[in-house]
Each structure stands twice: as C-alpha cells, then as structure tokens.
C-alpha cells in the first residue's frame, strides 16, 4: 500500500503537469460515467486512472482495517487503532480530492491534498517497518532524533514544493517575475533538510557496528538527496518543460521522505531493544539463582 501510494502521488504529479486536473469536470464520476469511453483521451485517462488507483487504495485500507481487528489478539494493541486512524486519513484525502475538482484546483486545497497524501504514505511506512522482523545492535546513539528531524524538514519542504507547483510559481516567476518570493523560499528551504540528511549520513557512517539495514538506508538517503538536487536544478534550467523530470522530482522527494521515515522507526526500535536487553543482562545472580551444579 505504501508503494501504491508512492505511485499514486507520482501519477497525481503527472496529472497536474499535463493540465489534466479538470479533465473530468465532475466527481466522483467522470462525465457522469464510471468509464468515459467517448471522451477518453490522454488527459482524461490520467485523471480517471488517478481516481481509480485512489479508490483501490481506499478499498485496500478497509481490508487492512478489517484484518487487523479480526486478528487483533495476535497483533500489538496499537495496530488496529492506528489502521483505523489511517482509514480516516484516507477518507479525508478522498474528500480533498473531490474538492480539488469542485473548487477548480484551488491552490490551498491542492497543497493540502499533497500534504495529506504524504502523511498517509508515511503512516503506511511506519506501520510496515514497525511490524517487520528486526534485531538491533543497540548503537544508534542520537540517530533516531536526527533522522526524525530530517524527515520532518523534508516533509515541510515537500509541502512548500507543492505550494510552488499548485500556484505555478516557478512558471510565473520565470515568465514575468511574479510569485518569485514563493519560489525563492522553496530554494532557501532546501538548505536545512539537506544539512540534516548529510549530518545523518555522516553520523551513521561514523557509528561503529551499526546495523547493515540502517547503514544501507543512510546510503539510500544520500543517493536520493543527490539525485533530487540534480533533478531539481535540471528541471529549473529546462524551464519545467520536461514532464518526466517534474514528475521524477516529486517522486524522488517522496521516496527520500519514506527512506527517512523507515530509518527513524528502525532506529527507535533499535534503541528500545537495547534499553530492554541491558537491564536483563545486569540482573544479579542472587535474583536468578545459582549457576553452579547441585
């Protein structure tokens, strides 16, 4: 579901770049039909397919909620509650999706739509990485705090990027020096999350005996950050004329956020395991009984 959400956000970016956001003038149907065969073209298909994937994701979420409550006795107590909250989040996302059409792509609703999508994407990753098997090494030190900070900064930078996109600020600034402040704020906003990610990668590299999974996630974050900056510069130099680059910029940013979310969850689990195991290892022998044979 997290991967499907990532694909859905990239598809939404393609729909916006191709000016297909209002290709279906009504909602939730498209031209009053489930499948608008007569009006179907590339733009209509993008909008219709985006709605199809979003609806499928909602159905999967309902199945997941039902499954977690059905087998709640075999799961941590928080799992059914969290999945139910995620179902509420995706319902709210669907309402925002409808408002983007009925309110004619109002920029604040479009930005909120992206912010909620990123939040749902992160929630699915938190849920998945919290339940996957993992045995920590107990050497994460301050990595959980740093990765969480980097993830929060990337999240808000992504929202700011969504605001730039929804207001077409980059196009207007390049064409007539309008809305340049929004675009420049986005440029300046790149600095804090970049420094946070670089600090995280450096600290992870300097941490001895760090779990290979965390070390690999750190390398992935560095690669995605480098690629994101490169794609961003290329997109601007080409005046946002290459659709693939613009969509890739959105997808890579979301992937970087997801990588940091997974890193944070695993690092927190690593620390908690270390805090639990250490007291057990220091229990006095008087409390555990003699180890000598009778």
Report on the structure:
It is a single chain. The protein is mostly helical and 294 residues long. The chain has helices at residues 2-17, 42-70, 78-102, 107-131, 143-166, 169-176, 180-189, 191-206, 212-237, 243-281, 285-288. It contains eleven helices and no strands. The longest helix is centred in the last third of the chain and has 39 residues, at 243-281.
Features:
mainly alpha; metal-binding; 11 helices; COX15/CtaA_HemeA_synthase; 76% helix; oxidoreductase; iron; metal ion binding; 294 residues; 2 domains
Biggest sheet features: none
Helix content: over 70%
> What is the gyration radius calculated from CA atoms?
23 Å
Q: How do the helices and strands follow one another from N- to C-terminus?
A: HHHHHHHHHHH
Strand content: under 5%
| Oligomer kind | single chain
GO molecular function, one term: metal ion binding
Membrane topology: Multi-pass membrane protein
Transmembrane segments: 48-69, 81-105, 111-131, 143-164, 184-205, 217-236, 248-268
Keywords: Cell membrane, Disulfide bond, Heme biosynthesis, Iron, Membrane, Metal-binding, Oxidoreductase, Transmembrane, Transmembrane helix
